[in-house]
Amino acid sequence: MTDGNGKPPFTLTRRIAAEALGTAMLLATVVGSGIMGERLAGGIVGMALMANAIATGAILVVLILILAPVSGAHFNPAVTLAFVLQRQITWWDAASYVLAQVAGALVGVVVAHLMFAKPLLQVSTTERGGIGQWTGEFVATFGLVAVIVGCLRWRPDALAYAVGLFITAGYWFTSSTSFANPAVTVARCLTDTFSGLTPADAPGFIAAQVLGAIAATGAIGWLLVGKGSSEVN
To answer: Considering 65, 101, 132, 175, which has the largest number of Cβ atoms within 10 A of its Cβ?
Structure first.
């Protein structure tokens, strides 16, 4: 979104604040709903995952609706990378966004721990490594970026709902439960709860997410734009 001069209507400071706030709220929801779901599921892991998935998808819809007009509501370095590759955001602004996203994600984890009277600083012991998990993250991130690029091209009004629905589905159809976000990945290394991921597994996840974002940006960009910008056949 830009003003009449081709510049974003909000200052970089406000956009960075929106990215930090949105990512913090996202992680507070991911971790908090995981803890609550596990408490109430009576040992049924599927019930805990369902609660985690619904809460995450729902908060994404809300956050995108209220913060997209400010910053674009990336909340995700992989999404920011896709916007850089499409030349819709500068590298400088992108670096600022990523720092805000990671910082916000860490704050969100701490807030979730505080709400549930957990130790504020933790390191996850939940192992999620291997080719299957990495493939799941590639697919999840590819799909998320494809949804965003496609919706912004054809149905920008539906973006919030499409992203929320995709992530809710991704919890269930991907082997990794669809992190699809390097900032989320880093933050989830610091919670030894239902949503955790061991730090040793994070590099593989992040590499798969970056590759998925790059692949989706190229593939969907090619798919949606033909020889001329007006071509649809």
So the answer is: 101
* CA atoms of 72 and 53, how far apart (whole Å): 23
Name the CA dihedral angle for 2, 154, 68, 134, rounded to a multiple of 10 degrees.
-120
Question: Using one digit for the tens of pLDDT, what is the confidence trace for 197-231?
Answer: 999 999 999 999 999 999 999 999 899 876 544 44
Q: Establish how many alpha carbons lie within 13 A of residue 6's alpha carbon, considering only the half-sphere containing its beta carbon.
A: 3
Query: DSSP letter at 223?
Result: H
Long-range contacts of 146-152 (CB under 8 A, 24+ apart): 146/216, 146/219, 146/220, 148/79, 148/82, 149/82, 149/86, 149/216, 149/217, 149/220, 149/221, 149/224, 150/220, 150/224
Q: List, in order of start, the domains of the chain with CATH numbers.
A: 12-224 (1.20.1080.10)
The answer to whether residues 209 and 185 touch, using CB atoms and an 8 Å cutoff, is yes
d(CA 63, CA 138): 24
